[in-house]
Amino acid sequence: MGQLSFFSAESVPPAVTDLSGLLAGPGQVVTSAGRARISAVVDAQWRARAVAAAIEECGLTAEIARSEEGHPLVRTDAVLALAPLASQWTKGAVKAAPRGWVPGPRELRIWALAAGYGENDGERFVLGLDPHASDTYSALAESLIRAGIAPTLIGTRGNSPGLRIVGRRRLTRLAENIGEPPADIDPEVHWPTF
């Protein structure tokens, strides 16, 4: 493992806007009475713990529960502080990526924690997308390009859409941004390193 970059997630102070990384992936937002709650169903308990820790670093309360299908579910309380983020990420009641959004290191880290996985023993890394929000895919691909990490859109016809990052330079850039993996990460995830 190398030294963390100046641009890494660990060098940027936490902010509520970091949770836009959760919305770029599997996250959902619900608003009511001027408050908003962000939640995400993830595929492993280590992901739920890591996302909950990131939520709490932003100064919000996190809860880990189970979805109706039995998968780990992590969510915030419904709070006023999330209302601006919710309005940026929705059009009506539908999730929509904000025009011109560029994910910073903390947003990328939360996205990777919630839905990132390596392929081919770490030669590629995929940031998972919301299979119920196909209208966001192109905008999110453009967002990664603006962040200096050009992806390839994959799996758009199935239940596992994602943005695949390939190539040493791109993977190094991603790794420099998202930092070190959580201590309890599943080794099969193949977190990118630099």
Describe the protein in words.
The chain is 29% helix and 22% strand. With 194 residues, it is of the alpha+beta class. A hairpin with a 7-residue loop joins strand 9 and strand 10. Helix 2 runs antiparallel to helix 4 (105-115) and helix 4 (105-115) packs across helix 6.
List the helices and strands and how they pair.
Blueprint: H1 20-24, E1 28-32, E2 35-41, H2 45-57, E3 62-66, E4 72-76, H3 83-88, E5 90-91, E6 94-95, H4 105-115, E7 116-119, E8 124-128, H5 137-146, E9 152-154, E10 162-166, H6 168-178
Antiparallel strand pairs: 1-2, 2-4, 3-4, 5-6, 7-8, 8-10, 9-10
Helix pairs in contact: 2-4, 4-6
Structural descriptors:
194 residues, alpha+beta, Endonuclease I-creI, four-stranded antiparallel β-sheet, 6 helices, 10 strands, 29% helix
Short description:
This protein has one domain: Endonuclease I-creI, CATH 3.10.28.10. By secondary structure, it is of the alpha+beta class. The chain contains six helices and ten strands.
